[in-house]
Amino acid sequence: MKLEIGNFQVSNVVFGEKTYFEKGVLTINENEAIAALNPEGKLKNVKLHIARPGERVRILPIKEIVEARVRPDGRAVFSGETGPTKEAGNGVLHALKGMSVMAVGKYGGWEEGILDMSGPGEELSHYSQLINVCFTAEDADPAVDQGQHQNINFRKGAKLLGEYLGKTVEKLEPAEWEVFHIDEWEEDKGLPRVALVLQLNSFYETPGFDDTFYGVDVMYMIPPLVHPNEILDGALCSGSICISGFRAFTYDYQNLPLIKSLCAEHGKTLHFVGVIMSMIGQTLERKERGIIRVAETAAMLRCDGVIFTEPGVSNADIDLFNGIIRLEEKGIKCVAVTDEDTGRNGRNNPSKVMLDGMVDAIVSTSNTAQILELPAMDRIIGDLDSVIRDPYPGTWSDNPVYGPSLRADGSIIIDSSCYLGNGGVTGWSNKTCKNF
Amino acid sequence: MKKVIMYINQFYGGIGGEEKAGAAPIIVEGMVGPSVELNKMLQNGQITHTIICGDDYMNEHEKEAIEAIDGFLENLEFQLFVAGPAFFAGRYGVNCGRICKFVQEKYQAPTVTSMYEEAPGVNMYCSDIYILRGGHSGASMRKDLRKLGDFSNKLLNEEPILWADEEGYFPRGIRSQVILPAEQTADKRAIAMLLKKLKGESFESELPIELLEPVPIPLAIEDTAKARIAFVCTGGIVPIGNPDRISSAGAVRFAAYPLPEDELKAGEWESIHGGYDHKYANSDPMVFVPVDAMRRLEREGEIGYLHPQFYSTTGNLTNLKDARRMANEIAELLKKDQIQAVVLTSA
Q: Which chain B residues are Cβ-neighbours of A194 within 8 angstroms?
């Protein structure tokens, strides 16, 4: 497969009379954009906002994030989601770089994140480095807006707004190209054969919460082998579960750093054979089935090595550790990339629910419960009251040590489980955990 | 200029050697022994007082010693408390840890000490206080004082204290997130680690997995009527007065005592284990060494032979390294008497 992504670097985003891209500036007609993201009127009170790096802005609760893109050949950017199911991973894409499209609601839940564009939170998230074009809205039907919900209309809205903004560069000539070309029949030239095992946000049996692949819920999928380009090209989309501090959003799949870096090393230091997607089994039997399929797929690919990601803790630790043990038993050398739950006081030891001597190579991307004290911001995109009112994982109404998460002056004290992008398990994170 | 108080033992305080180990604490204005050297290294601090205490006094009269020191400190102003360095010394290291912990908790002032990695005080106090990695003996005094000085300056200047390996202290059982340089992203770290692992080169896991060796369950003894059996106890049962000075915690040695013909009598034996209420063990030491029951089995022909002595130590806060070493030493002694099975009682 050969995927060519033509990149347009965005230096600023502003509102204006019409929607167009010129000299690095994206101008948006707000009404037209709102109509594009909410074609069926399932959302109400829709507004657009722009958050730029370094601004004193707090965004919450963030429900979905995508990169704005267009396919000049007319195929949908999200195959099976925003248009008919067509092959993803081949052909030409145009992308607006340095910015994201964020869906922001009024009500928070487990899966929804908080982000600051400046202050001490800035260096914890790759999203603080982007210009974030946000829409805020509420579901027109209040029954699907509060608590643990699929956020269907927000997720769809983000994708549609991403496609609408992407159209501004449909007919323009990109300034630079990124090319991802891995031929399925290519010889390995004696280089070590390496697969990426990518654990997805997938543990909700009720339909509509888990990640989707070509528009289909991945929950009961048997771990499939996929071409890395399919993921970079929007075939894999984020669902509405997994705690926001470490879950992968659609933007993360479209730009997955581990895939990009493995592609860059392909043919030089290693031979990248593909991505095996791994689901989090909700029964022991389903965990075992997943592990059998991951290990056997890697063996049939004659893998020498595997990088296995786990964006999560506890339940998902079992799939990671047992998966790696099975791979190592087959002689395949593994590196795990995952976060740790060291606890708010750092004394939660061990920081994974399972440890094993065969899992001897771990890249630790973050602590899921790091205490963060974040000052008040000048502007809120979304609803600050969601911090105490709603069931975010890393906030509390009161605490004997830390007091309430939301203070009268607008400052917050939370733990990193709800801080967007802190986990960075797909490869973004320049954080680790150390013994103190 | 910030004020610093230092704690040292009777030896480094110039009072005397082992014969003066029973000396009660005193406080002197200014500097004595190692505090003279440490003071030269402080950039923004001055050692105003030195507390000197006998190793045995603190060990045997902990409450009185701490009360006396508390009395010295009550009316003094200080921003840092430094103890040691204690090297591989057993009592001195434990005392440094004990007093630092007390001062830190009561006066909310930062504290620091220094010990050799196998000193029992390390395991007992490293989760409470900063203990710097020190040398084995007084020969490393200069080096250890230099480290104490550098670390003291950081504490006095309220600079951030980085992780344990970077600063040279024993991990306090706390794991926390740190931010690395921007280019060291997890994708690049993972690929580099995998390539090293594939080439068979050494690599360092960012989450080290420290595993306990599984202890295999031994095979059952086929004919117990001929079995040769011994007692080993980690509950701290010793003759009254603890003649072998086994520590109540973090033991580094064990002792062998003759096994009485009939029973271990109350009043002749006591528990010195620092981790449980001694009421039951002192009133009936045979809760740990049930020699009466085993002698009966011996008479009835249920077992073949009882080893003539029992081995005793304390298991609480004993580090794994010392526990393994002591177990190996005991096992060698038992093998000489062809012992096949051990009744191992713990607290």
A: 194
Over residues B272-323, the pLDDT tens digits come to: 887 677 878 999 999 999 999 999 999 999 999 999 999 999 887 666 677 8
Question: Using 50, 70 and 90 to split pLDDT, how confident is the model at A135?
Answer: very high
Q: For residues B98 and A432, what is the distance between their CA atoms, to the nearest angstrom?
A: 32
CB B304 within 8 A of CB B337: no
Contacts of A366 in chain B (CB under 8 A): 177
CB distance B93 to B122 below 8 Å: yes
- Distance between alpha carbon B228 and the CA centroid of its chain, in Å? 34
Residues B140 and B134: beta-carbon distance below 8 Å: yes
For residue B258, whether the previous peptide bond is cis, meaning omega lies within 30 degrees of 0, is: no
The structure tokens 């609803």 sit at: A383
How many distinct helices (H) and strands (E) make up chain B?
Answer: 11, 14
Q: In the numeric block, which tokens belong to residue B9?
A: 């033992």
The pLDDT value recorded for residue A216 is: 96
The burial class, CB within 10 Å (0-12 / 13-18 / 19+), for A141 is exposed
Gap from A8 CA to chain B (nearest CA, Å): 23
Tokens of A214: 């070509």
> What is the pLDDT, as a whole number, of residue B288?
95
- Find how far residue A161's CA is from the centre of its chain: 17
Q: Give how far A31 is from chain B: nearest CA, Å.
A: 38
Q: How far is CA B88 from CA A59, B7, B37, B93, B138, in A?
A: 54, 17, 20, 7, 9
Other Cβ atoms within 10 Å of A174 Cβ, number: 18
The number of C-alpha atoms within 13 Å of A295 and in the hemisphere containing its C-beta is 21
From chain B, the residues in CB contact with A246 under 8 A are none
Q: Which domains does chain B have, with CATH numbers?
A: 2-167 (3.40.50.2300), 224-345 (no CATH)
- Give the chain A residue whose CA is nearest to the CA of B165: A435
CB B231 within 8 A of CB B258: no
Residue B341 has pLDDT above 70, yes or no: yes
A-chain residues within 8 Å CB-CB of B172?
Answer: 435-436
Name the residue type at position A171. Answer: K
Question: Of A192, A337, A346, which has the smallest distance from its Cβ to B186's Cβ?
Answer: A337
Sign of the dihedral defined by the CA atoms of residues A160, A161, A166, A168, in that order: positive
Residue A346 backbone zone (phi > 0: left; psi -120 to 50: alpha; other: beta) = left
Query: Which residue has tokens 């039951």?
Result: B280
Cα–Cα distance measured from residue A158 to residue A38, given in angstroms and rounded to the nearest whole number: 9
- Do A246 and A338 form a contact (C-beta atoms < 8 A)? no
B171 vs chain A: nearest CA distance in angstroms? 5
User: Which residue in A356, A156, A115 sits closest to A250, CA to CA?
Assistant: A156
Count CB neighbours of B310 within 10 A: 24
Amino acid at A81: E
Weakest mean pLDDT among A130-134, A250-254, A384-388: A384-388
B189 vs A contacts (CB less than 8 Å):
363, 432
B167 membership: H or E segment, kind and range: helix B164-167
Predicted TM-score (pTM) of the model is: 0.83
Look up residue A40 and give its amino acid.
Answer: E
- Provide φ and ψ at A7, rounded to 5°: -100, 140
State how far the Cα of A212 lies from the Cα of A237, in Å rounded to an integer. 5
How far apart are the C-alpha atoms of A252 and A238, rounded to whole Å? 9
Instruction: Please count the other Cβ atoms lying within 10 Å of the Cβ belonging to residue B287.
Output: 15
Task: Please give the structure tokens belonging to residue B18.
Answer: 């082992």
Residue carrying structure tokens 């507004």: A47
DSSP code per residue over A33-79? HHHHH-TT--EEEEEEEEE-TTSSEEEEEEEEEE--EE-TTS--SSB
Nearest CA in chain A to B189: A363
Question: Residue B179 and residue A123: Cβ atoms within 8 Å?
Answer: yes
Length of chain A: 436
In this prediction, the answer to ipTM > 0.90 reads yes
